[in-house]
Each structure stands twice: as C-alpha cells, then as structure tokens.
Amino acid sequence: MSYRSVEKYVTSVSSNIPERALEAVRESRVLLLISRGSRRRLFVFKSRDRDYLIIPRILCTCKDYEFNVVFRRSKPACYHLIATELAIREGRVREVSVGDADFSNILYEVVYDGFSRTLRRVIAEKNSTGSSS
Questions:
Q1: Does some domain include residue 102?
Q2: Tens of pLDDT, residues 17-46
Q3: What is the span of the domain harbouring residue 115?
Q4: Most buried by CB count within 10 Å: which residue of 15, 51, 66, 123?
C-alpha cells in the first residue's frame, strides 16, 4: 500500500484504527491553525511532548513517518496522519485562530524545535478566556 493512500487506509481499517489515533481525536489534538491576517492555514498534531506538521493524507513530520512509512515502507501511515484523517472526516478538528506573528512562531518552533511553546501559550490563553477558537 502506498503511503499516499491514507484516506483509503483509514476507511479500510475502520475497525482496527490504532487506539492512539482515536484517543488523539477524542482529546482534540488535531489542530488547524488559521492566521487571522493572512488567512494561512496549517495542520498541527499536538502531542504531549512533541508537535508535528501535517499535510493531510500526504505528510507528517514525525520520525515514525520518516522511517517506517517513507524509507522502510512497512506501513502506510503514522498514527498522527490517521488521527488527522479521522478528525477531518468526523468534523473534530480544533480550529485555532492566531495572529500572523504567532502563526510564524508556531511554524518555526514546530519545524526546528519539534515543540511549540507559542502554541501552548495561545491555547492556554484561549482556554482561560473561554474562547473556543
């Protein structure tokens, strides 16, 4: 199975979806960041210790994707991609609206550090003010 067929994979294994993917969807860890000014959009998988950029059905920046999906071709997708596909299909992607500067900082931190302090600050601020996005 090609690593580019995540949607078909998720559909075909709907009864065997990894528990980690189901848990991530339940915990709203699949995020769609939307930049308020430029309207740029970016999927981020927020893990407990790491964050990953996601291009749905195509790419995840995790090591599992890099090694087991792309190089070894031992599986068609990492659980982050599966969770993202599920969240999209079920309408459970958490949309987070951020300013342009925060958007750029989050992108930089996820790519270069693998973890975004800015993302966590933005989410904490939204949670404390009761804002849903």
A1: yes
A2: 889 999 999 999 999 999 999 999 999 999
A3: 6-128
A4: 51
